[in-house]
Amino acid sequence: MRYVSTRGRSPSVGFVDAVLAGLAPDGGLYVPQAWPVFTHNEIANFAGRPYAQVAAVVLGAFAGDEVAPADMLAMCEEAYATFRHPAVVPLTQIGPNAFIAELFHGPSLAFKDVAMQILARLYDHILQRQGRTQTILCATSGDTGGAAVEAFRGRKSVRVMALFPEGRISEVQRRFMTAAVEDNIACVAVAGDFDDCQAIVKDAFRDDDLRQAVDLSGVNSINFARIAAQAVYYFTTAVALGAPHRPVSFCVPSGNFGDAFAGYVAKTMGLPISRIVVATNSNDILARAFSTGRYERGAGVATISPAMDIQSASNFERLFFEATGRDAAATEAAFNNFAQSGGLDVPPAALQMMQASFQGLSTSEDDTRATIAGMLAVTGQLIDPHTAVAVAALPRTSAPGPIVVLSTAHPAKFPEDVAAATGRTPALPAGVADLAARPERFDRAPADAADIKARLRAFAGV
To answer: Sign of the C-alpha dihedral, residues 242, 245, 246, 247?
Structure first.
């Protein structure tokens, strides 16, 4: 299995190199040179199998012969043993032909754990064999950083620096990062928004001297292994609802578009998905793009679903590349223009291809709050604000049933907002109930790439 850059100016690499690099040297994102495809019978055979076994098969299709199947299975079994629910991603029904897939039973109570727990074990497996220590720089709009810290804390082959926008994530989200005491973890509160943090990460990856000096890698959803790992729960969820014998739709609260793009990956691999509804909050760049073909950055708005407060969705580049027939030159030109002007136009044929799989819908703050309250009243279930954005979109979708909402975070990660909407404060699960009492450790920095890169060098000791 080989991987190519969406911008076409980097040589193809194998799975291991794509994982460790994160971002391609030309600034593009890695995608498989050819997509692996499962047969109808292979997908049907996922039914009733433990989550870790399905994950090993799906990830193995992307790893090829670079990771032995027995090693992949052992890593998956270890990774998903960290989840609080034996099903890993259980399903609950919330209405006629409507379901929620609970992705928040991992160590940091967010869907990012599903990918990050296996990614940490892949890094260990690869780096220990190579005798390397890498430095991971990640930007987080709330959950990626906590999941990365939980997955990599204390690991000898990796050090992690997590950047988060100060004052724009919940206290619980912040503490999942800043309560870590291990020396291989550094957390930095950036005076800006998530897009500022993400721009700093991309700037660092473009600095060849820095990349080599600290052996830089990334675990944001720019890393294709994250996308591959997230595709797994599309398979397990859809099969539980009758796939591949009938198609299933998904409604995905989305900011950086990695979770929704993972659904496209599963569909490309043969899973019959009717429609992927991309649900956004007021930061609606994706909803506007799928409706109009104009992908244009707006003014960032702080909302009660902060992990989605994004006006530059990294993984949209991967979809653009696929939708334009893998035209690397057009992709590079479009996203260079986006970086300079804040906008790009999706070619009509590419937009038509996108709209065949995706629908974009935005949800207001008032509707988000009302949906949190309504879900409790109707089903007795508390949901977090991100999940509520997607649930609120359900009545407006054109997707045929059954439809699954991806519930991306435990409501206890946003206790104030859930309590404000319902009058009930969600409790943290056992094991992390003392999180608020743990001391925090983090630095503050301006939204300045040079400043962060200097900190990164010092952290890596170079």
So the answer is: positive
Claim: this prediction has a pTM higher than 0.85: yes
CATH of the domain at 319: 3.40.50.1100
- For the stretch 266-323, pLDDT in tens is 999 999 999 999 999 999 999 999 999 999 998 889 899 988 988 889 899 999 999 9
Domain that holds residue 354: 91-106+224-422
Catalytic residue check, 267: no
Residue 336 counted as domain residue = yes
Domain-located, residue 333: yes
Task: State the Cα–Cα distance between residues 194 and 206, nearest whole angstrom.
Answer: 19
Q: Which of 112, 202, 413, 453 is catalytic?
A: 112
| Tens digit of each residue's pLDDT (9 = 90 or more) over 225-265 | 999 999 999 999 999 999 999 999 999 999 889 999 999 99
Residue 370 lies in a domain: yes
Residue 379 within a domain: yes
Q: How many domains does the chain have?
A: 1
